[in-house]
Amino acid sequence: MSDIERNKQIVVDYYQTAFDGDPEKAIADHLGPVYIQHNPGAEDGPEAFIGFVRWLRGEYPNVKLHIKRVIAEGDLVATHAHLDLEPGNPDNPGRALADFFRLENGKVVEHWDVIQDVPTHSANDNGMF
Fold it and tell me: What CATH number does the domain containing 51 carry?
């Protein structure tokens, strides 16, 4: 398996494990010695990430992360995902996420994201995913 394919698998497992409700395992398995966060609303470090996931699951206990696309180049992995906050609730279709992760030695060390609410109505029929 190439390093790029391995990096993609690491990010998917990290992200999915965390949002499935076990951010501590995600951190233990896949986080490097530092975690640099570029979202201005989030602090650096694993504790902030764990706190965010715990808070989100407290607000939305049935939240589901659906990773739609994974693209990688070198030490960077990008995911396009649907964060379904309330599955089955048409009044809350969730958020569209574009996340970018940098890895070092097979561990996640840096993160950027772009977040957009999924609208209930669209000017086209293409969908966001």
Answer: 3.10.450.50
- Per residue in 64-73, pLDDT (tens digit) is 999 999 999 9
d(CA 35, CA 38): 10
* In-domain check, residue 50: yes
How sure is the predictor about 1, in pLDDT bands with cuts at 50, 70 and 90?
A: confident
pTM of the model: 0.94
In DSSP notation, 95-123 reads EEEEEEEEEETTEEEEEEEEEEEPPSS-S
How many folded domains does the chain comprise?
A: 1
Assigned domain for 104 exists: yes
